[in-house]
Design goal:
With 162 residues, this protein is α/β, with parallel strands linked by helices. 30% of the residues lie in helices and 31% in strands. The protein has one domain (6-142). A six-stranded mixed beta sheet has the order 1-3-5-4-7-8. Strands 2-6 form a two-stranded antiparallel ribbon.
Amino acid sequence: MELEPSRGHWKDPLRPGWSHPLGRDRIWESLRERGVRVDGLALAMPSPEERPLRLIRARRYGDLSLEGKRRREDEDRGAFDPVTLRIFALPHDRLASGRAALASGALDAALQWIVEARARGNAWQATERLWTAHLVDGAGVVGEDQRQARGAYLGFTGLEDR
């Protein structure tokens, strides 16, 4: 029996004129090839005003947060990486360049980041991390951010998982 590459997956409704650059089956194939099992996978619809356009966001929950502790237990059992992965829809006029950016390595880079996160030290894993790829002038531009834990529930950043 083949294991599912994600615990949960969902697809946001699309607005007219928007499509996802990759389908779930293609994404799952890539996850399986890399041995990645994410806690959540979404084909997401961004805000239409968002610029630059997001292609991918991988969010690794910090081990100090309540959510991160729960997800970390699954990772320790070899079940799921404490990561949610979002692939964002694009307007039709940007779809070809978005697909090209993903095919030229943006998705592979995101999955490699998830794999490498497993071996990072405690200080790195303690905080929430975001890996993103944006579409800028027809090319994929990647970046990584760290979110500091704050609030009553250590790890709450005030950001929804959207």
